[in-house]
DNA sequence: GCTTCTCTAGGCC
DNA sequence: GGCCTAGAGAAGC
């Protein structure tokens, strides 16, 4: 399927890959292995539990992440998370314009954000015109919401979250006074733009609108500055926005992030490297981190 | 190592 | 004020 992306800010036609069917196998693999992380199961055991052949499992992972199942699963262990945190991130000084991706972030999803005024937020989305739609993506069935100013929300539909209806209620419920209409065709274009690394280009930044309280928006902006393939902690985020003791409040704000994946709340974890939580399920958080790990280290992907 | 306890900040009603 | 958190660190096992 070939998709033409119509956002004037982003522009080029691109092939949609979105191997959404592979995600189900990846998800089951992650669930199985994280249940028994003490004793890492072999490929054969995993394939049996996921009810696919070993060769198929291998092929799915290579197609989906560009890594062997073994390499992928190593990338989502707690040890690896600790190593990510150990690297540390340079603190940005207060004057630094966070959120806007610089040219140095070659592999990242380039984003230009706009924050919704507190006034507009108080009115619970009154006056907002939201279009939404569902499309398949690499992390399952994806709900996208947008306004004429850019992308406003991303959520996921699965049985744990009440299917399409539950996901929609969750997302639209954040702006109950907004008017909304559905457009699945354009939603497919958004999903292709967001989840296709080839479309991440500095000269065609993704426009997003952050709609939240001042505090929430500050946390989300800071999250946008965490590079792909790296991780941070809630405590570190708190220190970076100038409230070093507010780790818990930061966690709450991160949990309310409306634009999942784009605002990389999956790159935030507890101080021990434990994943601690994710609005759309810990398995999905783990999958996103592993997927990004593969993307950030293409060299490691090809090594046996 | 994991679990429990205590002290938290901030948002929201 | 009171009530929630996708927290953190110490203490105990």
Automatic annotation (TrEMBL):
Enzyme class, broadest EC rank: transferase
Catalytic reactions on record: a 4-O-methyl-thymidine in DNA + L-cysteinyl-[protein] = a thymidine in DNA + S-methyl-L-cysteinyl-[protein]; a 6-O-methyl-2'-deoxyguanosine in DNA + L-cysteinyl-[protein] = S-methyl-L-cysteinyl-[protein] + a 2'-deoxyguanosine in DNA
EC number(s) stated in the UniProt entry for this protein: 2.1.1.63
UniProt signal peptide: none
TM regions (residue ranges): none
GO BP of this protein: DNA repair; methylation
Domain HTH araC/xylS-type: 27-124
Keywords associated with the record: DNA damage, DNA repair, Methyltransferase, Transferase
Molecular function via GO: DNA-binding transcription factor activity; methylated-DNA-[protein]-cysteine S-methyltransferase activity; sequence-specific DNA binding
UniProt superkingdom: Bacteria
Entry annotated with the keyword Transmembrane: no
Alphabetical list of PANTHER family matching this protein: METHYLATED-DNA--PROTEIN-CYSTEINE METHYLTRANSFERASE
Family (UniProt): Belongs to the MGMT family.
Protein name per Swiss-Prot or TrEMBL: methylated-DNA--[protein]-cysteine S-methyltransferase
